[in-house]
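I am writing to request your help with a piece of structural work I have in hand. Here, with my thanks, is the record as I have it:
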Amino acid sequence: MKHLLSPLRAGAFAGLVFGSLLAQAQSELRIFTAIEVEFATERGQSYQLQGSGDLTAWTNIGEPVFGNGNTVNRIFSTKGGGEVAFGSYRLDITTVTNVGLAPWSFLGLSVGLGDDGAHEHYDFLSETNGVKVSPTGNDPFTYTFTRTGENEAQVNLVKTGSGGDKARRDLYTFTFTAEKLGTFVREEFRGERLKDRDLGTFTFLDGTTNPGGGTGGGTGDTNAVPTAPPAALTGLAYTFLSGATPERLEFMTATAGVEIEDKPRPDEDEPNKQFSYTYVFSTPTNATLVVTLPDNRRDEYELTFTQGAQGTFVRREFRGDLLTDTDTGAFSPAGNATAGGHGGNGSGGPGDGQGTPVSELTGTHYAFRSGESSDRLTFATATTGTEQSSEDNDDPSSFSYVYTVKEGAAASLFVTFKPGKRDEYDLTFNSDGSGSFVRREIRDEVVTDTDTGTFVRETGN
């Protein structure tokens, strides 16, 4: 029999030591409310929950959800006021069919997985069923597919007939580095217990296409993606996945490149680092890559090409001559080196040359990233907008602006928040609509700071 303590009595007898009752201060039982939302989805649509206190300024709540044809349920806590303490809510729906590399469905795909030299072959025969192909026969499975980002998808795969408390379930997270290939993380569950986690690479087999995959973002010129171990890295970009933070190495010349973190760490003050490197083969499928970074740092990679131009690596990190860390992971080609944008996190991709500035900003949203933080500028009209910084959860700052297209790929943007406070941007556009910027922060006609970074257009409100 279970007894429910009332809030006034809970914790009155909280501890026993050697059979003796301790006198303790009465504990406070707190009860918080939450908001639960549920909505149906369709493929090709992105769904963003928003909240408002005045039906005028709307704030995004949580991350956008990419539709998969199923019903989505989300619960948001209101503890301490929280980010959902609004008077009104709405669901913003955006069509994003032609954005990103990730498909909207795995229906009809044959996917080859490479993991530590082993190769696995999965055929997705319907929206919910498939088979693992092997020389000894086909093992059936059921699965649920979810597009979790512009360049990312998840497959929750359950082996048919593995019911009960020890049901076997594998959760795959596929990150597309180029069209039809990339890296994956596999989490193996037995019942609700995580038994194992490993990394590898994947490709689409048998000439299958990317169903519903977009063309915006990602690698740019997919013809530049190598299909065999490259003899040289000049002009190529590669994504290395180890743990939760993927890194992109762009090899600009035969000896120099730039390291770009797709998901910069919160304490990272220099997400783009220049490096020198050497790249030498020891066998047709094994190579050594030595990357020398600033501050007497060096990363030594042992590359094993297991699947065309993809494979696995062992990385040893040195600080001076001291070995500080050794990790393993998977690597995959990611198209052309551009030393500016990147496609691994779904926020646009590297361009394939200079582009043309957009003619106007009305109704658009741009993320400007510099160092560890980013600012999201929303251009509501031809002259006004709001800025939201990733460093805080304060209300967006309103501004007026002047946008001017210049020659070639250049444009200027003057953002005025109030008298005596404005930011001046020099913009350079890539061919995919993203680009780089120089920003001067001016306070009372004095330049107080100048920084540089990259910008990309975002979908949704």
